[in-house]
UniProtKB/TrEMBL annotation:
PANTHER family: PALMITOYLTRANSFERASE ZDHHC16. This is Palmitoyltransferase. It comes from the Eukaryota. Residues 360-369 have a biased composition (Basic and acidic residues). Residues 341-359 have a biased composition (Polar residues). It catalyses: L-cysteinyl-[protein] + hexadecanoyl-CoA = S-hexadecanoyl-L-cysteinyl-[protein] + CoA. It is a multi-pass membrane protein. The DHHC domain is required for palmitoyltransferase activity. Keywords: Acyltransferase, Membrane, Transferase, Transmembrane, Transmembrane helix. One of its GO terms (molecular function) is protein-cysteine S-palmitoyltransferase activity.
Length: 369
């Protein structure tokens, strides 16, 4: 099948003065539009739950003023935190590999021309000599994304839905229409936490009115149906979120992404599912940061830059080019510093703007089949 090389920003072809849209571009636009349906569904459910709780329950059903006020205050607190963390999970752009992980132009051309995998690997080995890479493919090769044309940093994976390489990719979540990864993992955990709090609060406070409607102790008004549904929907969401939330808390404690839980990362010394685990406390700090006062706020406080991560296995590998970045060999796992990078590695952060632009740049240059 032939490949169409389409110029940047204009995924259209001109025929006789008329603009004909490339079918793949139209298809992609449709897919992007449809991908928002789960988010819109959640937003509609949340809007209705707000109306049902505030208007139908608090204003029309609850007789006591004091009870109304207490419920409204706690409801709005959990509502704001839930919406804030949901918003941040949806709209935080996934972090991509920085320019250091792109092959230089000459090597890239050489890599594309080269057909033998061994020779391609040789090019990659040369290019990665000074990069802090500790993980490999299952076959022991350098992890390279042919689609994005970048060397994948540790824990980075290509997301086919976002069509980009995402740092410390956890999974692509349709309910937030975004990739959950290094840049928004904390927000995602908080989103699960606050949605659970929101649903639990609603279910707990609605329960007595739910029973009263059921036993005909309250007048048979239209509020009855809102209260009945409010309880059912909140209880249903509680059950489903609880399992997901507990699973992700367990992953945070182990310093594992969902992808790594299914397929253990492969280091030069072999695969190890606990390769990135630094001990419970430090694993928590990797995602939530050192300062506890920010743990419950959807503000980015995760440690590191998403490109390199401290590993307990790295010490026993004699081939490490950047061993100074990693924990010292004579330290126990508990002594391992939680901060993954020394100052010398911060050059990787230097061109943040470029890092964010890598995907844009690649997209502009990309081909469409
Ligand atoms: Zn990629
Ligand atoms: Zn994605």
């Amino acid at each position: 099948m032939g490949v169409w090389y389409v110029t940047s920003r204009k995924h259209s072809l001109r025929f006789g003065g008329r603009v004909k849209m490339a079918p793949t571009h139209v298809l992609r636009c449709c897919q992007r539009g449809l991908a928002w349906i789960p988010v819109i569904f959640i937003a509609l459910v949340v809007c209705w739950s707000y109306y049902a709780y505030v208007v139908e329950l608090c204003i029309f059903t609850i007789p006591s003023i004091a009870e109304k006020i207490i419920y409204m205050v706690f409801f709005h607190l959990s509502f704001v935190m839930f919406v804030w963390s949901y918003w941040k999970t949806i709209f935080t752009r996934p972090a991509n590999p920085s320019k250091e992980f792109c092959l230089p132009k000459a090597e890239k051309e050489q890599y594309v021309k080269e057909e033998r995998p061994e020779s391609q690997q040789e090019i990659l080995w040369r290019a990665t000599a000074n990069l802090p890479l500790y993980t490999r493919t299952g076959a022991g090769a350098i992890r390279y994304c042919d689609r994005c044309q970048v060397i994948k940093p540790d824990r980075c994976h290509h997301c086919s839905a976002c069509d980009m390489c995402v740092l410390k990719m956890d999974h692509h979540c349709p309910w937030v229409n975004n990739c959950v990864g290094f840049s928004n993992y904390k927000f995602f955990i908080l989103f699960l936490c606050y949605s659970l709090v929101y649903c639990l609060f609603i279910a707990a406070t609605v329960l007595q009115y739910f029973i009263k409607f059921w036993t005909n102790e309250l007048p048979d008004t239209h509020a009855k149906f809102h209260v009945l549904f409010l309880f059912f929907v909140a209880a249903m969401f509680c059950i489903s979120i609880l399992s997901l939330f507990s699973y992700h808390l367990w992953l945070v404690g182990k310093n594992r992404s969902t992808i790594e839980a299914f397929r253990a990362p492969v280091f030069r010394t072999g695969s190890d599912k606990n390769g990135f685990s630094l001990g419970f406390g430090k694993n928590i700090a990797q995602v939530f940061g050192d300062e506890r006062k920010f743990w419950l706020l959807p503000i980015f406080t995760s440690q590191g830059d998403g490109l390199t991560f401290p590993s307990r296995l790295v010490n026993i590998d004699p081939e490490q080019p950047t061993v100074s970045l990693q924990p010292e060999a004579n330290k126990s796992i508990e002594d391992v510093p939680a901060s993954p990078l020394s100052e010398s590695q911060n050059h990787l952060l230097g061109n943040e703007q470029h890092a964010n632009n890598v995907t844009e740049h690649l997209e502009n240059d990309s081909s469409w089949e």
